[in-house]
Design goal:
It contains 12 helices and 13 strands. By secondary structure, it is of the alpha+beta class. Strands 1, 8, 9, 10, 11, 12 and 13 form a 7-stranded antiparallel beta sheet that branches. The protein has a 6-stranded antiparallel beta sheet with strand order 2-7-3-4-5-6, with no helix packed on it. Strand 3 (40-45) and strand 4 (48-60) form a beta hairpin. The longest helix is centred in the middle third of the chain and has 22 residues, at 305-326.
Length: 509
Amino acid sequence: MDERPVGPLRVIGDTADNESSHKVAVVEPAAASEVEEGDVLVRETPAGPRTARVTGRHEDGEQTGLDLEDTTTGATDSVSVPSGGTVLRARDAEGNAPALGPEDGPPDNSEITSHEPLPPVAPVTGPTVDPQLSPEERGTIADRTGSPTADPDAEEGAARLGNDLPVTPAQASALADDLRGGADSGTPEGRAAQRAARRLDAAAEPGSDGKADVPPEPGTVGTVGVGDTVTLPDEFAPDTMTAYRVVDIQDGPGGVRTLTIEDGDGQRFKRTLASSDPLYQLPEPEAPADDTDAEPRDPNPAPDPERLRNDYRDSVVRAVIDSALQGTSTPGSVHQLREQIAQRLTPEALRTPMRRARNGALASITDAGFGEDERQTLVGSLRTAAAKARRDAIRAALRTLDDFEAHDGESEEDMARRAADALRLIPDALHNRSEASDDTDGAPHVNDAVNGHVGDAVGDALQAAADGAPSRRNAAPRSSRSSPRGWPPTGMLLPARSRRALRPDSSPA
């Protein structure tokens, strides 16, 4: 990535400006001594940028004391900063302090996804290629939706890449065409699909350098996504544009965004900007050429018994949670949701889903072509795997819903959707749990997705389902416990011109 002066650049057309609806139009550095009551400052917290209104100020020698009120939560705080130091101040389109309130709080970008088991793949003959794809590009391939009219080579190519297997040139080309056809360059996902298509084209034609003549595209901070390459004014030399790769994004109130960006040397920095700030999106850097001396990967590896066993565990967990989700299809009170979910987790209700999961596992084992002895050993291990997965899924549902309550003013429909969202987190949480973990009650961090408290009716019913015993409808209630509400405590003021480098291998805050 090169640094270039902006003086000689000629801009054709305009930069995109479709983020003007946000209340924060500018995030600018300001001396602490110039901050006035009523100003809105941007603060850095582990959860991302937050905004606070200045409700009071006083000078104490070379220090400036500021009384702050969080615009989202109303929490108050007092800080002292050097009078000559700089802070970040937010302005609206008219240059005034933006009128931010709780309704302008950070958007909830924690999209809940439920990953289906990887599709089976067929053996291939002939040459294969290994496309050099980034995690974002692999993600957009995994998220694509196939259709009955899709090219079979595209479907098989996506399945093989999902299983981390090489693809044939024909599969790479067909998948590239499919991705291009459904890509919207105005979205981060669409641009990732376009990048993936170019990588696949390059892999399908080894004689080509794979480079495409793609001009820079005008955009705004609000339109970029993780994986995009953008140009921004250098923080210390504003007349110089520098190219960066976006590696993380945290959203704040009123359209404020903190981008974690990586320069050409692999150093990472944080920049807090308004969503409406203009920038240019650049074509992605080309992936390094494959090592021609490397041994090609086997496109048809031997079947892995442990993987099939893990897939079966995942399918059992998913069957349990899918059944539990049916208990949220009819909105009702917390008590009604508990009863409905508990009814879907009895041994009788789970009998058909469990049989379906087992039949799928047996079919996969047969298709894998194991020898008779190995097949019998693997089939014999399914019962133990299913019993543990079923118990863990029910216990995880118990622990998730044990801290569930209705929010003030929440409709029964919204509460049912929230319960369903909490349950949908469980399959991936259990799948990602360390095998060495002793936590057989489910993943503790699943519970962080839910707030509040419920009584014990659902706990008893779910435990009864796990144990195969009748539920105890009249159990004595346990003591309630409640979770603190509101955002985490606000952090330190974000120095406007401190270019804080992160180690390339560190995780963004």
